[in-house]
Design a protein that fits this description.
heterotrimer; A mainly alpha (about 350); B alpha/beta (about 350); C mainly alpha (about 300); A: ABC transporter involved in vitamin B12 uptake, BtuC; B: alpha/beta; Rossmann fold; 2 domains; six-stranded mixed β-sheet; 11 helices; 14 strands; globular
């Protein structure tokens, strides 16, 4: 028999080694899966991990990794603050939708006026939309003590219905021949969140993601509030003695994560996606939760994890297109990667050793 | 800037490269909105792709990507195909319109075809099937066969394509049976088998004995089969597993002839942009084998089908009034494609409102 | 508008069918949560059960074996969750989400050969006399056996939690795993069994969709029922009979909305569709006064540090 023994401090070695080990393990098992589907495993793995970065068309895929990773990182950074303090916002998908609706709503309200202040107002609208949606679970938790996991999750479905209603009703493009979906903001200069440097994939959302990483790093390491967040997560009782006011912390953490998710939604709808449609949300809010954990709730870790997830998305698409791998196989592959990353994390915090004597 | 030029030049190099490759192999890409295993809409497009492969053999290479979300991901999927040397790319859902337009601009040497859209360019054509012609045949059968005079219709979303189908069905049914009534349910989803089945059940329980659907799964047929004495129609694909009843006929999207023709044109260098609407006459819309009906109804339905094919009968031929009684088409007038494209009203006689 | 077209008896009978997948998945998740574990992978386990059950039913020709396989398939997938959360002590929220992602992909791969096939049918329970009675016949005695099995599981879970020692231990583990551990209960073992039970129930619920309610196999056919099941457990405030009530209410709103549309009533579909979630939030707020309802250790990681 073996037993787990909690390390006094997380192992530095393993915290770097586990992600690598997890990726390697996924390559082995994923390779077996691809082989079972009749594809050359080495080629498939190479396509997923190598081609987007160094393949023939990497000049196109590298920027796309930024485009795909930015919303994940932006949302995950916000979530990680709360997760560290034991505040579980899992409704980022809903806040993402509401940010997009609010931000796009501001832009569409100005159409067809062209002015410099429209985009900043939309950004504000997006952040406010996400923030307001996150305030619902926050206020309910502070006021009534309701479980924020469940309330925020419920609100995702409410937001999805609102999105459908907007696409078919209020925001429907009057020149769209009756099809659902709003005007395309990419064709509305003042509202378009275009690339800052053409061909680089850098749009304001990517910039915001990097800023958020720095902001979170500074907050957690240099600021009293960051200390309170960490303390609350690690030792709630000590936190209370240290003068942390839990309700303020709840409002802050949920508010920030909601606002960041809302921003991600706004940047997406005004940039890469272009319009409010029924299927606008594609799960960034949920994937970001996984990204937050893969990054060990550390800002830099989240940046890397977001990049890794984006890489498997892009690489997976290439594998589908070039090798004819079914979309489902890519999903299974991603699932495996997450399993291994989550499972191997135990080595960071625990020591595995043979059981010596009988447990009392 | 520098990177833009890089991208464009790369695209041009590729255009040249694929032009050179075209001598031995033409590469054709397909972007699907659903999984190829949906048994309906995407499945039929994929059948078209397989037909292209079969027809041209070694001369073509096809690639596809399934379950592509509309929006940014679609743009990337299309770009990826163009980068990898596709000569012709079919994007098979309305939601891919703007992404296709954007990518087409970047790859002037690649040909694009977008289904059911209305934005075109020199290297971007649109195509669409006149499903509503098939609806006229279904409506005739429905009107003849219903005993309760209640016909159930499951629509996905209140958009012109679906409303067009409802109107065509109603007009045809009403012609042979003035007492028919339509019960319409909007499922607010293209694909949710459980909900579609529940919708079919709700219609059956309220006395409908004919169910038509404009959603993508075969669930309504499955539900009807359980209920017994009810008829349904295959949508998008033949849904032959429910023959001879409850499925008595079907509207099949047969994309194969169009795909083969367009690939051939790319090979010959004669491809041109345009807007192509194919109906029963051109074979893009096929009426599946009629089964399990009395002989006279079968004959009548087949006659309608042939008249539409030959152009003798138009599904929307005046006089037709809108639901509120205002005239839409006068005697001898037929609906224009522009009218059909943006149809957002019921014709006179249908009860209820189009949700806005 | 013709409301008289809606036959209330048939309406109730069909909402019972529509609610059964939700009921099965919900009661399973209730037991999981009672043991202090939050498994967000219900959707993944349901869809895996749906294809496992469908494939085996088609291959063997027996829907019964199909349902058995569905329960096994769901439980097998939940075993991955056990390994992650109970052995490797990974975060439950992330593990559950990963489980759903994996399950959706896996089921689509498994189901590639099963599109467009009709499964063998499970017969209705046909009790002479009783099934033919007006009103209560179709509502109470005209269904397939799995529907009754679902209700029986609810009753079983209720009795287990309320009257048995095993139920007491389960609740103790969910309330305070440290205290339960100090008393000598095997926390991990009890939670493992609960998670497996939850997986099996979710699998059955999935197979009910693919084998009875629709019946056919299509990719992604559970279409979010697993997520509603999570809401349902909260709505029910972790009480078995309320899970059943809630399932009928949630299932009922969908069926009712379709029926109202069929009868020609113009209703704002999106707003009706969001009502179950809003009601659930309201219930949460009302319940918040009663601090005893949610298991206190829900979602927390347990490690026996001796």
């Amino acid at each position: 028999m073996i037993v787990l023994e909690k390390r006094p401090q997380p192992s530095r070695f393993w915290s770097y080694a586990t992600p690598v080990a997890a990726v390697l393990a996924t390559m082995v098992f994923g390779g077996l899966l691809f082989a079972a589907l009749g594809k050359n495993p080495a080629v498939a793995i190479g396509t997923i991990f190598w081609d987007p970065l160094f393949g023939e068309f990497a000049f196109y895929y590298r920027p796309q990794i930024l485009v795909k990773g930015a919303p994940l990182v932006l949302i995950a950074i916000g979530l990680s603050l709360g997760f560290r303090a034991g505040i579980w916002n899992i409704g980022a998908e809903g806040q993402y939708i509401m940010g997009a609706i609010a931000g796009a709503g501001v832009g569409l309200a100005f159409y067809p006026l062209e002015a410099w202040y429209i985009f900043p107002l939309m950004v504000l609208g997006g952040a406010l939309g996400g923030w307001a949606w996150a305030m619902i679970p926050a206020v309910l938790k502070v006021r009534f003590g309701t479980n924020e996991i469940l309330v925020s999750l419920m609100l995702v479905y409410v937001a999805e219905q609102l999105l459908a209603s907007m696409s078919l009703g209020l925001m429907r493009n009057p020149e769209g021949h009756g099809f659902p979906g709003s005007r395309n903001l990419q064709q509305y200069e003042s509202a378009h969140n275009g690339e800052l440097i053409a061909g680089s994939g850098m749009h304001w959302g990517v910039a915001a993601a990097f800023i958020a990483v720095i902001f979170a790093y500074v907050l957690l390491n240099r600021h009293m509030l960051g200390f309170h967040i960490r303390l609350t997560g690690e030792a709630p009782r000590a936190a209370r003695f240290a003068g942390v006011r839990p309700s303020r912390l709840i409002l802050f953490c949920l508010g920030v994560s909601g606002a960041l998710a809302g921003l991600a939604g706004l940047f997406e709808v005004a940039g890469p996606a272009g319009q409010i449609t029924i299927d606008f949300n594609i799960g960034y809010g949920f994937t970001a939760i996984i990204v937050a954990f893969l990054g060990r709730l550390h800002p830099v870790g989240i940046l890397l994890a977001g990049g890794l997830m984006a890489l498997t998305y892009i690489g997976g698409e290439i594998a589908q297109g070039n090798l004819g791998l079914p979309a489902a196989a890519i999903q299974v592959f991603q699932g495996m990667l997450l399993f291994f990353l989550l499972a191997l994390d135990i080595l960071t915090n625990y020591r595995i050793r043979p059981r010596k004597s009988e447990v009392a | 800037m520098k990177l833009t030029t890089l991208l464009t030049s790369a695209a041009m190099v590729l255009g040249l490269a694929s032009g050179a490759m075209a001598q031995d192999k033409t590469k054709v890409g397909f972007i699907y909105v659903g999984p190829i295993g949906d048994g309906g809409y995407t499945y039929q497009h994929d059948q078209g792709r397989l037909a292209v492969e079969k027809h041209f053999g070694d001369k073509v290479e096809t690639v596809y990507q399934e379950s592509v979300p509309e929006g940014a991901d679609a743009e990337r999927a299309i770009t990826q195909m163009a980068l990898n040397g596709a000569d012709l790319i079919f994007t098979t859902s309305f939601g891919f319109m703007d992404p296709t337009v954007a990518v087409a601009k970047k790859f002037p040497n690649v040909k694009f075809e977008h289904a059911t859209g209305f934005k075109r360019a020199d290297n971007l054509a649109t195509y669409s099937a006149r499903f509503y012609e098939g609806r006229t045949v279904m409506g005739t059968i429905a009107g003849r066969m219903t005993k309760t005079n209640k016909i159930g219709y499951i629509g996905a979303y209140p958009i012109p394509e679906v409303i067009r189908g409802i109107n065509a069905t109603y007009l045809a049914a009403k012609k042979v049976n003035p007492d028919v009534e339509f019960n319409i349910i909007w499922a607010y989803t293209w694909f949710d088998p459980a909900k579609e089945a529940d919708a079919a059940k709700a219609l059956l329980e309220q006395g409908a004995d004919v169910i038509l659907q404009h959603t993508d799964s075969t669930a309504p047929s499955a539900a009807a089969e359980k209920a017994g004495n009810v008829i349904t129609f295959g949508q998008a694909s033949d849904m032959a597993e429910y023959k001879p009843r409850p499925r008595v006929s079907s509207i099949i999207d047969n994309w194969a002839p169009y795909y083969i023709e367009r690939v051939q044109k790319v090979m010959d260098g004669t491809w041109e942009s345009g807007d192509y609407w194919g109906g029963i006459g051109s074979g893009m819309v096929e009426i599946g084998e009629i089964t399990g009906l009395p002989e006279d109804v079968t004959k009548e339905a087949e006659a309608i089908r042939d008249q539409i094919a030959s152009g003798a009968l138009h599904p929307f031929a005046g006089p037709i009034n809108k639901q509120d009684g205002t005239p839409w088409l006068a005697e001898g007038e037929t609906a224009s494609d522009a009218d059909l494209l943006s149809m957002n009203f019921y014709v006179e006689g249908i009860k209820g409102e189009v949700p806005q | 508008m013709d409301l008289s077209a809606i036959n209330p008896v048939l309406l109730i009978a069909s909402l019972m069918v529509a609610a059964t997948p939700l009921l099965l998945a919900g009661i399973g998740e209730l037991v999981v949560e009672k043991s202090g574990v939050l498994n967000l992978g219900v959707e993944g386990m349901m869809i895996t059960g749906a294809i496992s059950g469908f494939a085996i039913a088609v291959e063997t020709g027996s829907p019964w074996l199909g349902f058995l396989a569905a329960a096994a398939g769901g439980a097998l997938l939940s075993l991955l969750f056990v390994l992650l959360t109970q052995v490797a002590l990974a975060n439950q929220v992330a593990s559950g989400l990963a489980l759903t992602l994996f399950g959706l992909g896996l089921s689509a791969l498994m189901g590639q050969g099963y599109v467009g096939i009709k499964p063998p049918q499970i017969g209705r329970l046909d009790i002479p006399v009783l099934s033919d009675m007006p009103v209560i016949g179709p509502i109470l005695f005209g269904h397939d056996p799995i529907l009754y099995l679902g209700i029986a599981i609810v009753a079983g879970v209720w009795a287990l939690l309320k009257y048995t020692r095993a139920g007491l231990i389960l609740r103790a583990v969910g309330e305070s795993h440290d205290a339960a551990h100090a008393l000598g209960y095997k926390v991990v073992r009890i939670r493992t069994l609960s998670i497996l039970f939850g997986g099996a129930c979710a699998g059955l619920g999935g197979a009910y969709i693919s084998l009875v309610r629709v019946p056919q196999w299509t990719e992604g056919m559970t279409a979010g029922v697993g997520w509603i099941a999570l809401a349902l457990v909260v709505f029910a405030s972790w009480k078995p009979w309320r899970v059943m009530l809630g399932a009928y209410l949630f299932g009922g709103i969908t069926v009712l909305q379709l029926n109202l549309q069929a009868a020609g009533v113009a209703i704002p579909v999106e707003y009706l569709a969001m009502s179950p979630y809003l009601i659930t939030i309201l219930v949460l707020v009302i319940l918040s006064k009663d601090k005893s309802s949610a298991p206190a250790s829900l979602g927390r990681i347990f490690h026996a540090s001796r």
